[in-house]
Amino acid sequence: MGFDFWRTLRGFALEFPLELPNIALSIIYIGLFIWTLWLRASDFRKMDGKAWVLLGLCLILLFPTRSLLVLYRQQLGALPASPISVLPATPTLSLVGLFLAALVAVRLGSGPGLVINLVAAFTWAWFGPLTFTDVMAIATWGLAVGYLLHQTYKGELYDILRRPLVALPIATILPLGFLSLSRLITNLPPGGLLAIDYVIAVWNNELPLWLVSTVSLAVLFQLLFLNPSWRTFQRADTVSLYSKSIRARLIILIIPLVLLSVILSMVAVTSRAINLAREQLLDEMRRSAENAVSSLTYFHYSGQNLIATFAEDPALLSQDPQQRTAALATARQVVPFFQELLLVDQDLQIAETVPDEARTLGLTTEEELALNRASSLIPFS
User: Fold this and answer.
1) Which of 137, 148, 190, 209 shows the greatest Cβ crowding within 10 Å of its Cβ?
2) How far apart are CA 28 and CA 220, in angstroms?
3) pLDDT above 70 covers what percent of the chain?
4) Beta bridge partners of 94
5) Neighbours of 183 (CB within 10 A)
6) Identity of the highest mean pLDDT range in 20-29, 151-160, 327-336
7) pTM of the model
8) Cα(310)–Cα(291) distance, rounded to whole angstroms?
9) How far is the C-alpha of 75 from the C-alpha of 194, rounded, in Å?
10) Where are the strands (E) in the chain, listed by range?
């Protein structure tokens, strides 16, 4: 993980959907975005003049400060080429942009937080290539932060969730979840199980970066909340579904536990299967290498014996070029040992070759030296 106080920007690189899965997913994301803004319209209606000034000022500051305090992390390992476009960008976050998005979400609510985080996600396309679905996924962090800090449910659990030290890191689950969903839907139809590798890569590469960034900002906002003027108005007078009945509590507890157990079981079985397949593959490669090493001693002698056998074919002395070529082709195919065979005349010139492309290559220096020695010992008749 690295840190740049000031980072030089690249060209703006934002890829819009071209394939059907990406187009469908983008339409779903846009629909969810509009629907969420409609549900959170009350956040905008409650804003006074100072709140609108704060929102506008933060939106303006996103662009000149996008290169300031940049945290990045090199990707771990290498993934095979994706059947659908998945851009190999280094995970990068602007701490200033994340702070401005968190500031709006903390002060104004989830609706404005969603809007400013969407703009912030677009500005991060100057750090590296992003897809449109990635931008929409990153924007959900501001929505989650605003919702957790401004939710009005009663209970100790919800009081804990209203603290910045808890709300900001937990909100990371939403953007990373949507990023994983994008990778899964994009690669699952053509790539099959390969899509799981891209889902795991999102959490391996992005989660540590987001946790470091959000925990740092959470500590800052938690200290600011020590000042009563910085605290958001957080009423707690709504009875949650969890508190309404014992049946609701059981359902809310059991369903996530069942889903979690299924996911963990799938991960454990998949991991074990991959490890077994890797071990079997390594054993087979080791066995093949040992067989190759044991037969390497006889490789030179085997080649000499085959050449001596092939040279006794009377068809090679024929005056018909086609008959000589057929004899070479037969010798080459009977035993899959040589890639090419060459027949030279008494002037040490290439008479026939198999395949025909070998004629253009000619004789190497080592081959000419060997033929000269052979002709001096056994003169051509």
Assistant:
1) 137
2) 35
3) 81
4) 70
5) 26
6) 20-29
7) 0.63
8) 26
9) 17
10) 2-6, 14-15, 68-72, 92-94, 130-131, 341-344, 350-354
